[in-house]
Amino acid sequence: MWLERTSPESWGNYIVEAWGLFYDIVLFGVILSLYNAWRERRVQIREYEDQLTDFLFWTGEEGVYRKAGIIRRLNGRWARLPSLKNVYLRDASLRWADFSHTDLRGAEFSGADLRGTDFWHADLAGANLADSDLRGAEFFHANLHRVNFRGASLGGGNDMRQPESKRIETRALDSDKPGLCSTDFTSAEHLTWKQLKQANEWDQAASYPDNVIAEAKADGVILENKKE
Fold it and tell me: What pTM was computed for the model?
């Protein structure tokens, strides 16, 4: 019989080959699952980007609500936002949103809740941030040319406690109120004292570029840069 003629060494080889085939199948399944997950994520992100582009100029309350929701979903997937030039987000709730490296030229953010928002390297030229809540927002190397800050809140607030899921580095904290943040304008580009002068609580902002401090001093106002 064939089984009787099979040596123990041959059985050992068969077992090794069988295990090798099993691991190949498992590895292929894992790679296929990862690829499908990546592909589904890319498809979903593209759908969100298309929706956001379609709704860009929708000025109704529902439109603002849906755009804010899409932005939060894209942030949750660590996806970079598409161009939001001239986007309409008046009175939107966008607390802790990530707009880093985003084209926001001419964006309408008046009255919006932008507490803790990340505007790192964002282009906000000509944007309207009037009456918005910018406590804890960061503008590291953001383009703030002709941005309207009239009536905006820039000082630290009692409800600016950082969520555990959000890592925020290089943000100045109020030593008297652990966990509270103030607006950081350090390294912001094209920002002027004239712009900040129109805002509320501008004297409580965490930090300012040197040019703003100099312009304020020339206007008889002493700004203390709290950032170390």
Answer: 0.70
